[in-house]
Structures are given as C-alpha cells and as structure tokens.
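Section 3.1: Structural characterization of target chains.
Under the original work plan, the team committed to producing a structural model for every single-chain target entering the pipeline before any wet-lab resources were allocated. The record below documents one such target. The sequence was received from the expression subgroup and is listed exactly as submitted; it comprises 222 residues.
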Amino acid sequence: MKSPYILVSLTLPVMLAGCASPPAPLPTGVEYIKPATGETSIAYMGDAVIKSTTGLVGDALVLGNANGSFSTVAEGMYCHVSGDVYRNFDNPLAVGLKNIYGSVVNYKDYVTYDAAKNAISLPNHTTYTSSEISIKRVPDGVCKWTYAPVKSIEYNGNAGGVMKFAYRETSATRGQTTTDFTVDAKGSDVVTYKGARFKVISADNTSIKYTVLSGFTRQDKF
C-alpha cells in the first residue's frame, strides 16, 4: 500500500511545474561592445575590429551542467530579472523537467537562487546545491539575447592607403548580410560606419591598431 504514496511523492515535482509563476518579462537590453569603448586593440586580416549585440549586463549566475532524477540544468549565463529569479536568455531549453521515468517532459529557461545557501531551485521545486552543480555569481555578467542581431566590422587590409572593411550583420531570423566599404587612410583617422566609431592608430595590409570610440547604437557605458 505504499506505492500510491510513493507515486504521489515522485510526481509532485512535475505537477507543481505547471503552477510555477513564470519570470518577469524580458528587461530592456543594452548594446554589448567588444572590444569595450576606450580600449585599444589590434585586429589582423579577416578579424572583427568591433563586434556588438544586444544583451543584459549585471547580476548573473554562471551555472555548470547538472543531471538529476527530476531535472537537468544546462551550463550557461543566467541573468537576474526580478526577485530571486535568474533567466537564461540564450537557451529556452536550459532547464529540463523530468517525469517519474526520468524523461524530460517540459522545458523552462529560469531558476531561482538562494544566496544564503548558494543553491538553485527549479520550477518543479527540485534543488541543487553548490556541491551538486557549479554555481558562480558574477556582478557584471553578460547575457546575449538569442534573437538579437550580431553586428561587426571586419578588417580586410590596406591597399595603397585605402583601408578595406566588411560590415556584417547576422540574425537568427534573417541570416547574414555583408556590405564591403573602404576608407581613405589619408583622410580622417576616425572611421564611422552605421554609428560605430573607432580611431585608427596604424594600419597596413596585415593588421590594424585602433581604439573603439562607440558602438553601433552609441550606448557605450561598458
């Protein structure tokens, strides 16, 4: 006669998953620029001079992989959205919820974090401590949005004082577009394209040394 009670106990985590409140709506994103504004870097032929995407920067958890009896957790960055909720914007299947047979039957993209215990809880109320999963809290984590386009300017050499570049924009929904453009090195030492700006210190046919002045949306608070 213990079986019914065992069955209820085992199925409870999955049943509760349907009653769990979802995390808050997606917060407003900001542009993440690499290299950061004000940073001096060297890019070689075919390398990106500047790259940017929309992301969230702030309190986050870096989690490792976990595979338990009632759930799975994918490694990655989980950004704080509200209260004790941390969400993986890059992977909608980050948290897998299992049935009593050990099969994943539902997916979520968030966890709740108990800072005092350094442990996470999932929507079906299963928990993992730091001894069961790698948990690292970072104050300035960056979460890229899955569907945010990635914009970049690639360096393609210097021929006779004319610097060659390629602007690329890659989107999960629209694919990749590429536009080639050139800049006369004898003119201004500041290259501006689609809002992105960087100052050229030196450039030859193999590399370019430069300082990033702003990103494509000029939200250069990093």
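The helical segments are 3-17.
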